Amino acid sequence: MMLPIDNFFRAAALWPDRVAVEIADADRCQQISYAALADMTRAMAAGLQAIDPQPQSRVGICAYNNFEHLLAWLGCFAAGKVWVPLNPRNGVEELNRIIDVTDPSVIIFDADCADKFDCKTAQLISANGTHARADNHIDDMLDRYKGAQPQTFQASPDDLQAIKFTSGSTGMPKGVMQSY
């Protein structure tokens, strides 16, 4: 079965030199090719698998819309993990409830989101900046696992891809399990 992440790697193989991402913010302005993004995605996936080798374990991502969020998201899928989006605009109580319900083994977070949740069981990875709570940093993982090939994940249509939470407009937000 072809997974959505396979389409990304296929594009990287077909158009390695084309621009996949253009980053333009206050700190940087750069273009990243499909080949470079694919290499970073593999390194990220290998790092996630080293932290938790169990397929289908959950990875929470609490980050704003930035390159590191994209990289964490792609790495999560390339590692065969279940993505748990943690919206940094949600309140502390709601984020903690989502974390308690989904029990992620890893949480990747923007440094300025670190105080928005409390988790004692997950490995904490800072996506950008440094934070005392972080067990690791994305840049360190990319360096450590550069050139590594993650274990492949053979998914079935019933396997989970993500656990997304509703807005909670009629009560408490509910987790929706999204399969492939």
Descriptive account of the structure:
With 180 residues, this protein is α/β, with parallel strands linked by helices. It has a single domain (4-179), classed as Rossmann fold. The protein has five helices and nine strands. Helix 1 packs antiparallel against helix 2 (34-51), helix 2 packs across helix 3 (67-78) and helix 2 packs across helix 5.
Task: Write a short abstract of this structure.
The protein is α/β, with parallel strands linked by helices.
Protein topology:
Blueprint: H1 4-14, E1 19-24, E2 29-33, H2 34-51, E3 58-62, H3 67-78, E4 82-85, H4 92-102, E5 106-110, E6 123-128, E7 136-137, H5 138-144, E8 160-165, E9 175-179
Instruction: Tell me the number of strands.
Output: 9
Number of domains: 1
Largest sheet: 5 strands, parallel
**Name given to the CATH architecture:** 3-Layer(aba) Sandwich
Radius of gyration: 16 Å
Which whole number gives the mean pLDDT? 93
Distance between the termini: 10 Å
Structural class: alpha/beta
Give the tags.
single chain; 180 residues; alpha/beta; Rossmann fold; five-stranded parallel beta sheet; two-stranded antiparallel sheet; 33% helix; globular
